[in-house]
Amino acid sequence: MEIYVFLAFILLLSVYLGFELINKVPATLHTPLMSASNAISGITLLGALIIAGRTSSPELRTMIGSAAVLLATINVIGGYAVTDRMLAMFKKKEETKK
Asked: What are the protein's UniProt keywords (predicted)?
């Protein structure tokens, strides 16, 4: 039982620290941090693929692994789309020729 209290404490601490850290990041650093988090999501996707491919207790692991693959894929694609859109804001607009 005490392990669950410890794990809940770690979860709450990480949520609090993550929230505080994100609020303190200036807008100019958001894009590089977003790219780094996309790379971490790619690692999560790889781990989810490994879990989904395990054969012992195939029903539960396959379901959880498949859900993790789906969510990590959405996170990676969405993250790269947002990063691309943010980087497009810094490009100079082409002058239209008349």
From this structure: Cell inner membrane, Cell membrane, Membrane, NAD, NADP, Translocase, Transmembrane, Transmembrane helix
